[in-house]
Amino acid sequence: MALVPYVENAGMGLQKFHQPLATFSFASHTIQIRQDWRQLGVAAVVWDAAVVLSTYLEMGAMELRGCSAVELGAGTGLVGIVAALLGAHVTITDRKVALEFLKSNVQANLPVHVQPRAIVKELTWGQLENFLPGEFDLILGADIIYLEETFTELLQTLEYLCSNHSVILLACRIRYERDNKFLSMLEKQFTVSQVHYDPEKDVYIYRAQKRSQREDL
């Protein structure tokens, strides 16, 4: 995730990001996410897309027990934490600069018996030497499609990590035309469908899977 500077006179819409703790209830657990907008910007606050995707997972959209999952651009790690609490084996990833902060949230919010199911690992999109192709059953991303210059590397990463049976779930708010551009790019490589919309938070969830050879004929 990109880092943006802290702005002292930010508008009221950003005030929740300035709170040191954001508290949620998922999977019968109280989750307290530490935030640090001043130091790490967007990588260290909980965005609405992460809350909506976590809620969607808790609703039983996917069978997570025993599932191998990865969260891309995890930031605070909320989605990965919830997935682990729901039974998945999760690799929670972000760039190196955000890893220690991410790791602290994961360790603070997972019971000891759940922690072995969650690994925090560095991943810069497009740099995939430490991952196996088709490694994951489920790829999760919340609000990760907002920088157009990262689209090519993100698509490369999705293509690499997916097998023919993998499912991608991306939660996002469609803010600009570039967001639709990414979805169009995604549809060239994957079968994409909108599976959920939260009108209160104006967040969409898209499900994508690799196209079969038959579909491409």
From TrEMBL:
<protein>
    <recommendedName>
        <fullName>Protein N-lysine methyltransferase METTL21A</fullName>
    </recommendedName>
</protein>
<dbReference type="GO" id="GO:0032991">
    <property type="term" value="C:protein-containing complex"/>
</dbReference>
<dbReference type="GO" id="GO:0005829">
    <property type="term" value="C:cytosol"/>
</dbReference>
<dbReference type="Pfam" id="PF10294">
    <property type="entry name" value="Methyltransf_16"/>
</dbReference>
<keyword id="KW-0949">S-adenosyl-L-methionine</keyword>
<comment type="similarity">
    <text>Belongs to the methyltransferase superfamily. METTL21 family.</text>
</comment>
<dbReference type="InterPro" id="IPR029063">
    <property type="entry name" value="SAM-dependent_MTases_sf"/>
</dbReference>
<dbReference type="InterPro" id="IPR019410">
    <property type="entry name" value="Methyltransf_16"/>
</dbReference>
<dbReference type="GO" id="GO:0016279">
    <property type="term" value="F:protein-lysine N-methyltransferase activity"/>
</dbReference>
<keyword id="KW-0808">Transferase</keyword>
<keyword id="KW-0489">Methyltransferase</keyword>
<dbReference type="GO" id="GO:0051117">
    <property type="term" value="F:ATPase binding"/>
</dbReference>
<dbReference type="GO" id="GO:0030544">
    <property type="term" value="F:Hsp70 protein binding"/>
</dbReference>
<dbReference type="GO" id="GO:1903333">
    <property type="term" value="P:negative regulation of protein folding"/>
</dbReference>
<keyword id="KW-0963">Cytoplasm</keyword>
<dbReference type="GO" id="GO:0032259">
    <property type="term" value="P:methylation"/>
</dbReference>
<comment type="function">
    <text>Protein-lysine methyltransferase that selectively trimethylates residues in heat shock protein 70 (HSP70) family members. Contributes to the in vivo trimethylation of Lys residues in HSPA1 and HSPA8. In vitro methylates 'Lys-561' in HSPA1, 'Lys-564' in HSPA2, 'Lys-585' in HSPA5, 'Lys-563' in HSPA6 and 'Lys-561' in HSPA8.</text>
</comment>
